[in-house]
């Protein structure tokens, strides 16, 4: 990464920021470096043939002016001039967007990179602390998000700059540590000969864990999805309750592993669609105990705070913060920035 490839120059305003998921697309407009993000209506990706159509209609419905820059967050890596979405029919084509919408600049980043960009600005009702510890200012932060998959990203602070580092941390190994877990793990089907964290700690992985729990408990259950499991747990079903208890403890261990690896004294933050649905299992003490159980570094872990992100859409807020002050973030633009009149991404 060269200095020339970093995000130091201001973007032409207004800036459209977009969080594009497999099901929904969310948009907001940032008019200048001192303006809040003005959110437009959420729209289903299936309702539009492409992103340009969704942007055009969303802005029209909200009465917002046309942007000059678009900064877009998508799930997965940004490679090439055509970026397919994992769980939707759209293909993001920045040069086509420039032509369709009259844009000067299009930037595409990873979705958890956008989540990481939001972390320095989250406070008050945006976050709920789990357990003890306190934020050390200007220190590394980490965000972990069990949703459809398990997203992860770091935000490193160095040379007075925040540096987002996306990755595939959700695919680290996850093994059992207690006698109960050893009984259950033997009943969980592996994926590609292994059990990565995402195969358990996600909305798609939770049913896999529940089947293992049911088998270990000699109980028959047919949970179709994570929502069925959380509803069962709320009703006191022993398989549902045990599944969420193990889920929370395992998530605590994985979060602790990342905190220790990166010395994330700026805090570890939980986001994703699953997190708000299992809040009581994350705040009952088991998650935090698993997070801190990193002997011989228990005391260090106890000093690192953990949070649930309660903001409705932190990814949009992260992109908006980047749009206002790109000089505060060292975001690598190599191959991820397209400008009008240029034949290829810069």
TrEMBL record:
**Keywords assigned:** ATP-binding, Cytoplasm, Glycolysis, Kinase, Nucleotide-binding, Transferase
Q: Which EC number applies? A: 2.7.1.2
Provide the GO MF annotations for this entry.
ATP binding; D-glucose binding; glucokinase activity
GO BP annotations, alphabetical order:
glycolytic process
Q: Does the keyword Glycoprotein apply?
A: no
What is the predominant subcellular site recorded for this chain? cytoplasm
Q: Where in the cell is it found?
A: Cytoplasm
Q: Per UniProt, where does ATP bind?
A: 18-23
Q: Which InterPro entries match?
A: ATPase_NBD (IPR043129), Bacterial_glucokinase (IPR050201), Glucokinase (IPR003836)
Q: Which CDD domains match?
A: ASKHA_NBD_GLK
**Entry protein name:** Glucokinase
Name the species this protein comes from: Roseibium suaedae
């Amino acid at each position: 990464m060269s200095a020339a490839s970093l995000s130091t120059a201001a973007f032409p305003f207004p800036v459209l920021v977009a969080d594009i998921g497999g099901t929904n697309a969310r948009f907001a407009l940032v008019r200048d470096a001192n303006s809040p993000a003005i959110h437009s209506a959420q729209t289903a990706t299936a309702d539009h043939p492409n992103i340009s159509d969704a942007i055009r209609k969303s802005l029209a419905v909200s009465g917002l002016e046309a942007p000059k820059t678009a900064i877009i967050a998508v799930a997965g890596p940004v490679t090439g001039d055509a970026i397919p979405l994992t769980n939707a029919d759209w293909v993001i084509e920045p040069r086509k967007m420039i032509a369709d919408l009259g844009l000067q600049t299009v930037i595409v980043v990873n979705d958890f990179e956008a989540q990481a960009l939001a972390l320095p600005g989250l406070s008050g009702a945006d976050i709920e602390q789990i357990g003890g510890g306190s934020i050390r200012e200007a220190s590394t932060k980490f965000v972990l998000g069990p949703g459809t998959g398990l997203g992860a990203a770091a935000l490193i602070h160095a040379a007075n700059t925040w540096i987002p580092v996306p990755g595939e941390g959700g695919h680290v190994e996850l093994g059992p540590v207690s006698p109960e877990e050893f009984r259950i793990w033997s009943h969980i089907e592996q994926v590609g000969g292994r059990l990565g964290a995402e195969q358990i700690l996600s909305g798609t992985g939770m049913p896999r864990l529940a089947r293992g729990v049911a088998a270990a408990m000699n109980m028959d259950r047919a949970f179709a999805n994570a929502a069925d499991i959380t509803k069962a747990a709320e009703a006191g079903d022993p398989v549902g309750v045990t599944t969420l208890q193990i889920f929370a403890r395992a998530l605590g261990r994985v979060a602790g592993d990342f905190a220790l690896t990166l010395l994330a004294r700026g805090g570890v933050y939980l986001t994703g669609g699953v997190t708000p649905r299992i809040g009581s299992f994350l705040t009952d003490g088991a998650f935090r105990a698993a997070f801190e159980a990193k002997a011989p570094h228990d005391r260090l872990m106890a000093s690192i705070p953990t949070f649930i992100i309660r903001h409705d859409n932190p990814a949009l807020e992260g992109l908006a913060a980047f749009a206002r002050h790109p000089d505060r973030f060292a975001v690598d633009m190599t191959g991820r920035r397209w400008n009008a009149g240029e034949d290829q991404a810069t």
